[in-house]
Structures are given as structure tokens and as C-alpha cells.
Amino acid sequence: MTMRQPRAGGRARSGGRPTLEEVAARAGVGRGTVSRVINGSPRVSERTRAAVEAAVAELGYVPNTAARALAANRTDAIALVVPEPEGRFFAEPYFSDIIHGVGVALAETEVQLLLTFASKARERQRLAQYLAAQRVDGVLLVSVHADDPLPDLIEQLDIPAVVSGRRSASEPLTSVDSDNYEGAKAAIDHLLSRGRTRIATITGRLDVYGAQRRLDGYRAALTAADLPVDETLVVPADFTEGGGRRAMTELLSRRPDLDAVFAASDVMASGARQILREAGRRIPDDVALVGFDDSAIARHMDPPLTSVRQPIEEMGREMTRLLLEEIASVGAHHSPASRLLAREQLVLPTELVVRASS
């Protein structure tokens, strides 16, 4: 290629932002060449690249990311959709940890994050209209219930999406989850090793696949220890502190002889602890208590709570990584079928953190 002679002169025209054309004139190349350099194309010689980069630096040119995104049919934005009431979102550390992980993953990109709640029919309808208008490039779905229509809607719109926690064993969307089954099993094995035999569990909402898997792990550990699974020791709740209190009250009414409780979240364990204290039960002397999440709540409880640590921030990072990869595959004009084949079901390991409550 023949290099054009750079124009003499200093910075761009006085007043106003330097343009792509001015960078091209300064570097002595065409506008398309400047665009290729800015977008990292390999189809440019080192000499040309150096000339363009020097012109960009001299003029103080800042690429118009909005225009670039428009040209690529992208918005450079993703939505984090939470199909839960806002009260639960702000009460549970799980959600803030997920967002922190997402933020870390987006920090080195130009992608913006939109947070939206969609627990009610009207909110879902508004979100559907927003997504159909192609105002975001992809969706992160957190805390999805088995009967939630949102994932199917998103799939129909052919929008890249990643869910936190599968809806079932046959989840069709890309998903990131923690090993709920093994985490719960480790919690019960720990309680059994401490000589506890009348172990109750407070489950989360059983239309959440992760809550089902924690219950499955509880049952499997008891069965492996040749202990019966007594359904009077199983009470479902809703992952809230109030739910933990109500479930613990019911458990003490049903089985006052229980000697351990596995709560499927730290928040519910906190509610259970209040009821145990009010009933005069000492923790762990009379009743051992174990939670799930290993959130700040677990560390600050009295006594500190034994809990199953799930790598929530890492889940947020991995969800974002997988979503950005799906978005990039769309940009590379991959077919929906090839994207479907590439969808991943990532399960991250959990770890039992033993503290004074057990």
C-alpha cells in the first residue's frame, strides 16, 4: 500500500472532538485503514499501525464506542434479570456477591450492566418488550424457578443467555451452578461424624432446582449412613429469615428431640437460630446448626455458623465470561444451531467451612 504524506500541523481543529477523518489525514492513510487499526484487525502492516497509533495519540482521538456498537449491530450492554421481589434481592448476600463477580468480569470491557427485576407478570411483560427491541446483547438470569417463563421467552427471542442455577437436569440454556448435591451431602456427613442422628433440614423453595439438589444430598447422606429418611424432619421454606423461623418452629413442634438442623441457606439458618434460642436450645450443645452459602451472615452469627461455601463471586464471573463468549459467537455470524451445541453446564465445587455452631 502507498502511504499518503501526513499533513503538517498540530492537533485537530480547534474546539470539538477529533474525527476519524482527521486521524486518517494525520497518518496519511484512508479512513478504513484507521478503522481496522482501532478495531485490532491483523490486515494492517506494522508500519501503518504505528503511523495510525501515533496520529491517535497526537490528536487525542477517542473511538466512538456507540457508533462502533451500532455498526456491529450491538448495544454493548447486558441485562442481569432477577425474577425475585426486590426485598429478597437486597436482603440476601447471594445477590450482591453475584453482582460483584459480574462487575469484576466486565471491568476490562466497555459493556454496561442493566439490573432489572421480573417477579411479577407486568414486570416480565415490560422486560419482554425491552428485550424484543434488542436493547441488550445478552441476559444473565439469576435465581430462576422451575416454572418461570422468562428463560423460554429469552430462548424464543434468540438472545444469548446464561442462567445461575439450572431449572432442571436438562437445562437447555448455558448455566453456571455450584455443586448443591455434594455440598449438602458434606454438611450431613459432618453432622453424622459429630454423633448427630436426628438431623432435620429446612429446604429452600423446591421449585428451585438447587434447593431440590440440596434436599437430595441430605437424603443421600442419611441413606449412605443406614439411617432412615424421616419426612417429619423435612420442612420446606423460602430462603428468607422469616421462612427459617417458621420452619424451625414447625420442626420443634413435630420433633422436639431433634439434635441437628441443616438449613439450605445462611439466611434461613439465622432465622432458625432465633427460634432455637427462644426455645432454650443451646447451639451446638443441644442442637448443631449448619447453613449454606458461607456468607457474611455465617461469620457474624453467635456462635459462628458452619456453612457450605459456594463460590458465588466466581459464579458471577463465569456467567459473564460465558455470556460474552456467546455474544461474540453471534457477532461471528455463528448459526443458532452451532451456539446450541456449544452451550455449557458449568458446575463449581463447594466446600464445608466448619465453625462453632456444629
UniProtKB/TrEMBL annotation:
Query: Which InterPro entries does the entry link to?
Result: HTH_LacI, LacI/GalR-like_sensor, Lambda_DNA-bd_dom_sf, Peripla_BP_I
Q: Report the PANTHER family cross-referenced here.
A: HTH-TYPE TRANSCRIPTIONAL REGULATOR GALS, LACI-RELATED TRANSCRIPTIONAL REPRESSOR
- HTH lacI-type domain location is 18-72
Alphabetically sorted, this entry's keywords are: DNA-binding, Transcription, Transcription regulation
**Keyword Signal appears in the UniProt entry:** no
Q: Which SMART domains match?
A: HTH_LACI
Pfam families found in the cross-reference section = LacI, Peripla_BP_3
Q: Can you name this protein?
A: DNA-binding transcriptional regulator, LacI/PurR family
Q: Name one GO molecular function term.
A: DNA-binding transcription factor activity
